[in-house]
Amino acid sequence: MARPWSDPSATVPRRLDLANLRVQLRLAEDVISALDDFERQWDKFVMMMGEIIRLCGEEHLTFWDPQLDELLKKVEAIRLDLASRQELVLPEFRDPLAKFIRTSVRSYSGDLWTLIGVFARDSDGTVVVPIGDDGEPTYEVSQRNFEINTDEARAEVVRRRRILTEDVRKLKVMIEEAERVWAEEHELELEKVHATKVVPLLWSRFKGSTVGRIVWWFGEEPLRKVLLGLLVAGAGVAIPPIRHGVADLIHRLLGR
Questions:
Q1: Residue 121, strand partner residues
Q2: Residues 59, 132 within the same domain
Q3: Co-location of 111 and 222 in the same domain
Q4: Model confidence over 219-228: pLDDT tens digits?
Q5: Is 194 a domain residue?
Q6: What is the per-residue DSSP string for 124-185?
Q7: What do you get for the CA distance between the two ends of the chain, in Å?
């Protein structure tokens, strides 16, 4: 089956499309690498927050006890780092991950306490911290609440990784197909160029060979007979200039 003819003018745009796909693939792979870094930082954040919550439970400390201040500073630095990375690796993400990233751990807020503490809600939905016997808020942390929310947040990272991995897979398939099409068209163009250069050369060599001269002679034989007939008829022409002119023309043609 003959190959479809391809327009050479389409070669450059298609090569540019292939280059664009490769750029997209590299960028997608870079985002996955950035997501790896984000996940490592997230694991550090969860580990250190978990340590603070453990100490609160074991030592009967409030979350903002001065003994925990240095740990909280380190956790806050990690949180800010995660926030700076978020726009690239997680352009769209949901709670509770969004709450963890945007909420400071160094001061109380309703968002923070819904992630790590024991709380209730009043009639209008406001977070209410339980009150102790002394009439002060207890600020009791909840290991279970923390683990539920961090697991849910990690699911957002996993979901994003799945999307990016699928994007990379699709781009690789598109690149393979584009390379295949471009290679076929390039091969076809090379064949055309080769034929353009080689066929006249082979034909010239064939005509110069013994077999070629024989074939060429038999191919011209009918024409030669016609020309010889004209030469004989021209000999009887009464006007010498015309007779000589006809004879000269025929001899020139036969000489070819």
A1: 127
A2: yes
A3: no
A4: 555 545 554 5
A5: no
A6: T--EEPPB-TTSSB---B-HHHHHHHHHHHHHHHHHHHHHHHHHHHHHHHHHHHHHHHHHHH
A7: 41
